[in-house]
Design a protein that fits this description.
Largest sheet: 2 strands, antiparallel
Order of helices and strands: HEEHHHHH
Strand order of the largest sheet: 1-2
Helix content: 25-40%
Distance between the termini: 34 Å
Shape: globular
Radius of gyration: 17 Å
Strand content: 5-15%
């Protein structure tokens, strides 16, 4: 339950603004309380939580939409821990110290090293700069999830 402060970045994909928008969306639900989890969504007036399985399906569908051959890995290798792995890799590619990766990822040890891929060094210098400055549209932010069919 350690507090880690994040400041606004001023960039389009600012995590603080994204988090604020998520909290505002959830707080806007009529049945929302201080205990409503962050994975809540509303469908037909009822609140539901997004399960790990549903999130895994969305992540794998995103991989398929971008293209497995373009990304270099099959959708079946993607799961909810891929988010943590990607986060650690992105920080390291931005030359963040291991201690920063540990704090931001809330790791108490260097266990995050198990999440990162051996290919990190293969990306070379300025990989993150190239990634952010790309002129392509291969970055995706999942907007409001929309309606789910709930059984």
């Amino acid at each position: 339950m350690e507090v880690v402060t994040q400041h606004r970045t001023g960039i389009k994909m600012c995590p603080v603004r994204a988090w604020g928008a998520t909290v505002a969306r959830i707080r806007g639900y009529q049945q929302s309380t201080d205990d409503t989890p962050i994975d809540a969504f509303q469908n037909r007036g009822k609140l539901f939580s997004i399960s790990g399985e549903v999130m895994r399906i969305y992540l794998r569908n995103a991989v398929k939409a971008v293209g497995e051959s373009k990304l270099g890995f099959p959708a079946e290798r993607v799961g909810t821990h891929s988010i943590r792995s990607s986060f650690a890799m992105m920080l390291l590619l931005n030359d963040e110290a291991d201690s920063v990766v540990m704090k931001k990822g809330r790791w108490k040890s260097n266990a995050f090293l198990r999440y990162i891929r051996a290919q990190v060094s293969a990306y070379g210098i300025n990989a993150s700069k190239r990634m952010v400055n790309t002129k392509s549209d291969h970055f995706y932010v999942i907007p409001h999830i929309g309606k789910f069919k709930i059984s």
